[in-house]
Specification:
Layout lengths: L18 H22 L4 E6 L14 H10 L4 H7 L1 E8 L2 H13 L7 E7 L2 H15 L6 E5 L8 H8 L4 E7 L1 H10 L4 H7 L5 H4 L5 H16 L3 E8 L5 E9 L2 H14 L6 E3 L17 H13 L2 E2 H8 L6 H13 L3 E4 L12 E4 L2
Parallel strand pairs: 1-2, 1-4, 2-3, 4-5, 6-8
Antiparallel strand pairs: 5-7, 6-7, 9-11, 10-11
Bound molecules: S-adenosylmethionine.
């Protein structure tokens, strides 16, 4: 694999701060808010890796991902409880010397960190660092501490083998910025881009797996392929739309944890309460929803009725099946109650109130 060392090829990235960067950082903050205690309250050590850390702040002072992640932990309400149980380490890898030095300055402004929190800025090519890390863990036969990797390059050329190897360890989660517009263009060029695409997808299966004419269906197919390649249990992603409202990149979360899947779904619903898993560049980040939009639960009600048409299901079993869909559990609970009120479904074999806790067996009304 040819890996080039070098300076930041896109320094103008740091001049502006669009809604897409804002939402990307909101998702990291929201997710880490749940992830830190979920693992930190028992694991002994947890690690956040920012593989493309950048320079720490944008020109107008907005914080970059390393400081977002670190501050999320420093300001976390369970911080001290987590530190009683675990060390928390932040690796910030950045290839560009100048960016790395600016980031170090930002970090030093935070002063001395509480004991058991460590920041390790590294000036290097992240893929070399990750390959070395993978090799070390393999050689030692040990599993790394639970880790969250944020992979945020400018381009799409991320070696698939590295992603696959990382996901092969227990309790590793990846949050990848898939630069879809360029990746899609490369796929459209076919054989001319074959070597690069073979690296990205760790083999030639992209030829048969990504074939749709529709750009968003192709994105779904690419995500499916990345999921299969990494053998991740759950892929969850949000489409980030550029100026012309066409998908520019995908923020893709890969995890083997059911709780991780639920948490990322919750985070995306928080940034899009209407349930549309996309974010537009043109949206105003400072504008909050005055009235939180209610999602249309019609497709969910149809999903429930279709399920029950095959056979009755316990409420909690339906909730498990829901994990593969975009809907959250509170939506399911509401839709079940509505369908029962409307006389479409009924429940039996339960004691007490008709609710998820009493776990009725749900069936279609004749
Ligand atoms: C999109 S910016 C990162 C933004 C940052 N994650 C944030 O949200 O604030 C990409 C950064 O990755 C750096 N970079 C590019 N290729 C790299 C590589 N192979 N290894 C490490 N850093 C790299 C660039 O110099 C640039 O600073």
């Amino acid at each position: 694999m040819a890996i080039q060392q070098g300076a930041d090829p896109n320094p103008s990235y740091w001049a502006a701060y669009s809604n897409l960067q804002h939402v990307k950082h909101e998702l990291i903050k929201e997710y880490l808010n749940g992830w830190f205690p979920k693992l930190g309250l028992w694991a002994g050590r947890i690690v956040y890796f920012d593989t493309h850390a950048g320079r720490g702040t944008h020109a107008q002072g907005q914080l970059g991902s390393p400081l977002i992640a670190l501050n999320t932990f420093l300001e976390h309400k369970s911080r001290d409880k987590i530190l009683e149980k675990s060390e928390v380490t932040f690796f910030f890898i950045e290839r560009d010397e100048e960016n790395a030095s600016l980031l170090r300055d930002e970090l030093s402004r935070l002063g001395t960190l509480p004991a058991k929190i460590t920041c390790r800025p590294i000036v290097a090519d992240c893929f070399l660092v990750l390959q070395e890390l993978i090799a070390q863990f393999r050689a030692s036969g040990r599993n790394p501490a639970p880790a969250f990797f944020f992979i945020d390059p400018y381009g799409f050329n991320i070696p698939g083998s590295v992603l696959r190897d990382l996901m092969g360890f227990e309790r590793v989660e990846l949050f990848i910025n898939v630069i879809w517009r360029e990746l899609n263009m490369a796929i459209s060029q076919g054989e001319r881009m074959a070597d690069t695409l073979d690296t990205v997808f760790d083999g030639g299966t992209w030829r048969d797996a990504i074939t749709s004419e529709d750009i968003d269906e192709r994105a779904d197919q690419a995500v499916n392929l990345l999921r299969t390649m990494t053998e991740a249990k759950w892929p969850t992603y949000c489409r980030m739309l550029g100026d012309n409202n066409v998908t520019r990149y995908l923020l893709l979360h890969l995890t083997n944890s059911d709780a991780g899947r639920d948490l990322m779904k919750d985070c995306i619903w928080k940034v899009r309460p209407d349930g549309k898993f996309y974010v537009r560049k043109s949206d105003d980040p400072s504008q909050q929803y005055l009235i939180e939009p209610e999602p249309d639960l019609t497709p969910l009600r149809t999903w429930i009725l279709d399920k029950l048409r095959t056979n009755p299901f316990r409420w909690k079993v339906l909730a498990d099946h829901l994990r593969a869909e975009v809907w959250r559990e509170p939506h399911l609970n509401k839709a079940i109650s509505e369908l029962r009120k409307g006389g479409r479904i009924e429940g039996d074999q339960y004691e007490g109130r008709f609710c998820k806790k009493s776990n009725p067996r749900l069936f279609l009304c004749p």
